[in-house]
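Ticket reopened. Same input as before:
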Amino acid sequence: MERVEFISERSVINRETGLREETMMLNMGPQHPATHGVLRVVLYLDGEMVVKAVPHIGYLHRGIEKLCEHITYQQCLPYTDRMDYLASICNNIGYILAVEKLLGIEDEIPERAKTAEVILFELGRIESHLVGIGTNALDLGAMSAFLYCFKERERIYEILETVCGARLTTSYPRVGGLPLDLPDDFEEKVWNFLKIFPKTLTEVDKLLTRNRIWIDRTKGVAFISGEDAVDLGLTGPTLRGSGVPYDVRKAMPYLGYENYDFEVPVATDGDTYSRYLCRLEEMHQSLKIIEQALNNLPDGPYAADLPDVVLPEKQLTYTRMESLIRHFVLVYEGFKPPAGEVQHAVENPKGELAYYLVSDGSGKPYRMRVRGPSFVNMQALPQIVQGSLVADVIAAIGSLDIVLGEIDR
Amino acid sequence: MSFDLASTIETLEGSFPGSITGTVEYRGETTVLVDKKDIAGICRTLKDSFGFTFLAELTAVDYLEVKTPRFEMVYYLHRFGPEYDENVRVKLKAAVTEDDPKIDSVTPVWKGADWLEREVYDMFGIEFTGHPDPRRILMPEDYEPFPLRKDFDVRNREASKLSFERALDQDAE
Amino acid sequence: MGVNTNSILGGDGFLTTTIEAFANWGRKNSLWPMPFGTACCAIEMMGVFASRFDLSRFGAEVARFSPRQADLMIVSGTITYKMASVCRRIYEQMPEPKWVIAMGSCTCGGGPFDSYAVVQGIDEFLPVDVYVGGCPPRPEALIDAVMKIQKKIDMEGAPVV
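Engineering reply: fixed in the latest deploy. New output:
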């Protein structure tokens, strides 16, 4: 860990008062309850006011991009879970779509798989926004909102557990579709969730949206203008809270999002309160999308009919030699996309998540690059907290909704 | 689509003669191969005159022994259309040699390139002239190798252990 | 107090005073955990502290983020070499008696990340009392780990460093 000097700049003598002044360095160290992970922010203070803030990251850098160069495309999938671990299913789907684009098989994915992926993606969005709002509220003292949000998260965990067996790190979809058919009680569980969840959302709304304390702590705090936000490369609710209506689902649609009827909430004030309102409304819109998708969930195959890419059915591998060989080759060597490179972007709950894949014709990616939205969003921190109080730094970090797994990879 | 990408590239070829070495179309993406000496100028023109205000991605790839020059910088620029479905994304690629791993920084053009370029320096060792804060970002400050280069073994933890021991010694002081 | 030590310890044959047994009983039922959460396991740990799998049923209600006020450090999430010196420093700031739970595969042995930046198990620089495998472990597994710590406190008392 690098040493940081206690006195940032040389002390200067204030001409008016004749006193020697210097800024104080305060280290919000990597281990801190309100930094949403291992983030270190070095604050230089003039009294209670922040003169300069320097974020230091890299305390969770695990080398995922390098590790993925040594394993097959399908084996990279569990690593993508662990980047944005608050909405793992969204990361998974984004990666699978990028590999499918690299292979050129986007048109052959069956409708059932696509619709199921939309439902899971939107559940992931709700999951992530619950943590975003919950932890933002917890940092500012509203503990009840945090507990309500986590209670609802448990319901989503239950749905994910029936689908893929894991609560948090799902690793569910496969290139070409889904690995198994959706369980029989999946639709019923999601319908139940759709009935119960709006009540909790209204409760959180009542607790926070017109709460005097919440408004005082978040209105006007951590402001960024739309133009600055675009220049910095911000995406997601952080950008839409400043008035720029960019949403990858509408701009570069994937998975059939052009067929769903939903709106993208945009707020204009550019402060913490606006971002909070964006996230809250996005959850309502996600419920709308899930309802439409559930009504249109078709029966049919759950994976594409592509012998070079999709594993054969397990029963066949026990009885037929060709299926066994195909299974073996696909697992051991992996499918081999043609040499080339693609980028595919999805609208992660935190912003635009883009995977850049370079293939050299072999079964392993030559380069897998992940553009994590939190990494780029974090750059805004020095600008938005300059001139504000130390307590506002906490609100600002919470409103950027960062997750260190994605920043550091 | 009301935005014509092909004519934009032609205009660029006119303004920066000899720098645009080719275009590639693959899986619906347009790639423009540029010479690294004019990258800042091309990016500035694309942002100011053609509206590519959003830098979507900035990264590098190491093509050790697969092709020369060794490194390739990849930039994805994005233009918001007035209507939702008129968004345009274009990719720029600039080759960087191993002997002279330097390229102009595009941080003066988009502030968002700041950390992305720091990460490329940290992982590949490519230096960006004109970058306001050229330090490592993900690895510790005193780390020496460049991890994402192809000649660095993924399990090589020696440099990390050294940095850890130095940090423990500093703490003990 | 008039307690029969044999009945508390189950006739294990340990000779201990009643005061130590009483102190152990107090310590195990009021563990103050310090959540040292870095990655995905931290979210499951937050789930354990939340309302469904309530850890405060076991007395570990007061989650103190300051090491000087805690006695159980739950290290959850991947520890990289950059973070390891911080982790060691925090551990040394905790007062005795203290215990460490290594939660998740990454802390037990590096997990899926066999790479240039990840410590392959925090027992390289910290003494660990209970290892919990899983990626991430279910909240019930973490509660089981806390119960094992409680049992360990009963049997051994304060650990000798």
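The radius of gyration of chain B is 19 Å. The longest helix of chain B spans residues 158-172. Please confirm and we'll close it.
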